[in-house]
Design brief:
The protein is α/β, with parallel strands linked by helices and 283 residues long. It folds into two domains: 198 residues, Rossmann fold (3-Layer(aba) Sandwich), CATH 3.40.50; 69 residues, Helicase, Ruva Protein, domain 3, CATH 1.10.8.100. It has eleven helices and nine strands.
Length: 283
């Protein structure tokens, strides 16, 4: 039996049977279009035999699309009703035995993933997409690549280069792990309920070598946060609090890192932020 994807009628019937009303609080918008599901899976270049992690599988639309491509899925779901029903739905739709593992948990608190999947494919809840992505990149070094569907504004921010109007703390932190890019637009009409915002697909590949140590990453992220909390200020002022306490002390660390004290955070690459972190740790 081949894997059958879910259509709008099956999704609504499942939601009704489970007494699930998509909620804004959990950022739930279910994908009801099989062609969109297949497009996401194809964009993520999911191959037979691959191990994939999915966050927020919901009623299983995307889960079935990943399994249809021949991959196995570890699905992390915070809603107990949805987590309990997912294996039943997938089996009924023809998913092979052993192709699905469900982790009934909050994705922000998960510390290990069965099978150490290399690929992340997910329709991420809008309100937690950046924290979830950063948590997964930090916690699971075996995650090599992925494609996630997020709110357009968030996606463009994640993929923004230095100097861009939307470049900010999420852009710099995401870049720590490797390059991110917007790889597709998604119509609002493929969701139920129809969201009030546009969505995009964002793809990433992890750099083969770690950028720095865990201590350097923590210090870099602290500096990134401080730089963008006062993004209009020069770095010697914005970073005074984390680099010694005064603008003069901050300027000395910045100069040691080869960064102009008069620069602003939005001009800096993640490697420049790392250079500041290293100079501050050495001071």
């Amino acid at each position: 039996m081949s894997v059958q994807l879910l259509g709008p009628a099956e999704i609504r019937a499942l939601a009704e049977a489970l007494d699930v009303t998509p909620t804004k609080k959990l950022g739930q918008n279910f994908v009801i279009d099989a062609n969109t599901v297949r497009r996401i899976v194809k964009t993520a270049d999911v191959r037979p035999g691959e191990k994939v992690v999915e966050v927020g599988p919901g009623l299983g639309s995307l889960t079935l699309g990943i399994i249809e491509a021949g991959a196995s899925v570890t699905a992390v779901e915070i809603d107990h009703r949805l987590a309990a029903r997912l294996p039943i739905t997938c089996a009924a739709q023809g998913a092979p035995e052993g192709s699905l593992t469900v982790v009934d948990a909050d994705a922000l608190r998960v510390t290990e993933l069965p099978g150490e999947p290399e690929t992340l494919v997910a329709n991420l809840p809008y309100n937690v997409s950046v924290p979830v992505l950063l948590h997964f990149m930090e916690s699971f070094p075996y995650l090599r690549k992925g494609v996630v569907m997020v709110q357009a504004e968030v996606g463009h921010r994640l993929a923004a280069p230095p100097g861009s109007k939307v470049y900010g703390a999420p852009s710099a932190k995401a870049a720590w792990y490797g390059p991110w890019r917007v790889v597709g637009n998604i119509s609002r009409q493929v969701f139920w309920p129809v969201p009030g915002v546009d969505s995009v697909l964002v793809g990433f590949t992890r750099d083969p070598e770690a950028r720095g140590t865990e201590q350097e990453r923590a210090q870099t992220f602290k500096i990134v946060d401080a730089a963008f909390q006062q993004r209009r200020k020069m770095l010697r002022q914005a970073l005074a609090g984390v680099l010694g306490g005064t603008a003069a002390e901050a300027a000395a660390v910045l100069e040691a890192a080869g960064v102009a004290p008069t620069a602003r955070g939005e001009e800096l690459t993640i490697d420049a932020f790392l250079a500041i972190a290293r100079a501050s740790l050495a001071a």
